[in-house]
Amino acid sequence: MAASLGKVCSYQLPLTAGRCGSDWLLLRAQRARQFQQWPWCSLSSGRGRFNAASLGLQARVRPFPLLIATGGGYMGYDQYGRYKDRELTKIGIEVPPRIANETQVALYKTIPTRLLSRAWGRLNQVELPTWLRKPVYSLYIWTFGVNMQEAAVEDLIQYRNLGEFFRRKLKPALRPVCNSHCVISPADGKILHFGRVRNCEVEQVKGVTYSLETFLGPHTWAEAINCTIKPSNEEDPSSFQDLLVTKEGNELFHCVVYLAPGDYHCFHSPTDWRVAHRRHFPGSLMSVNPGVARWIKELFCHNERVVLSGEWTHGFFSLTAVGATNVGSIRIYFDKELRTNSPRYSKGSYNDFSYLSNNNQEGVSMRKGEHLGEFNLGSTIVLLFEAPHDFTFNLKAGQKIRYGEPLGTM
Fold first, then answer.
1. I need a surface site. Which of 55, 90, 285, 354 has the fewest CB within 10 A?
2. Distance of alpha carbon 322 from alpha carbon 187, whole angstroms
């Protein structure tokens, strides 16, 4: 009875000791002791209680959910901007490409794509149990739209690991090589961009460029292919481009072919030429998806790549295999010394190798359509070559193309 009366007094009656007697005082003392044991009430002053409560609020903040919320909000904002760009494009308004700033590129580079690609390469070599091969490969076929009717071996059970499946061969004579044109597509893929090189700048996709000199590196390799080196003018941005044009009346052309993960992963010689020099850049392994290529300027200059340089009937010719995420392994069939995505090579450098020797002054002769190399998953091929000014591409940006089909004519 006294306890009940004490509770009533403590909540409903004025705080006067005379109303409730000693029981009420005892109950109030117990509540005071409990009140003092609470963490946010350990400080007696009002200001102290406020600071302690603030500390309690900070303790309840979780950084991971905050990071997820912030990242999700940014992605939502970015996707909304892209949606508006697409709507403007539909009504005929040209929208400039969204280019990543230096901070965004630096953050992307912090992702250990080289390490992940090496791990992926080792996983590809793990032999799968027979019962697991068909479900795994069928999922990949469904995801990337692989046409297995073109494969030389259609039975999925015959592929022991993912690596063999990625590097599957085509049926003989399935890709006839066009003999009436001087340059053919080296691989199955999508045409990202093509045209003449202007002011030493090359477009990787429409509106997004990269430096020709940064992409190929110093022109010291020109000595290996016996090109006539002209005096360079450092103040003229096109001077490096002029070094590559060795014949009067010629111009420099380029073509970019993107290989999707579902495409045939081998690449072939695009013309009759001789390969005299190889330059390997051990760069990053960022994605070369067309969406990323439109976002990151000089993406191909950041990524690991293998530049094969030489000559064809009209002068300078080069083919560059550009690596990408999970495509750290670039293989050139006639070059057994090449090792890509290796920990011994550091970013920002390059390694040269000459195919010329005292016993071989011609280098490596390649015939049009001949097997040249392969990727592990899918990537990009960049062709840079010298040709007469009347050379024209018979292409459209974004079109699908197959190995062996013509790129252009004189």
1. 90
2. 13
